[in-house]
Amino acid sequence: MSRSTVGASGGNFESPAGSTVAATTSISDTTDATTVSPTASLERGRRRQHHPHREPGAAGRRARCC
Q1: I need a surface site. Which of 12, 16, 54, 59 has the fewest CB within 10 A?
Q2: Cβ pair 2, 27 in contact under 8 A
């Protein structure tokens, strides 16, 4: 990463001198393992009801579920 200062204004600066000379730094990091444990809560609301469908002409016969 590199960055250079080209100017400053405002504030209580003590005459900062702008420079085009790059200030260079390096950043190194290691890879750390991250563990995620998702949690959830059950929401109780209206219960869904299942209605079996009957075939046409199936009067008296057992309902066939889809």
Answers
A1: 12
A2: no
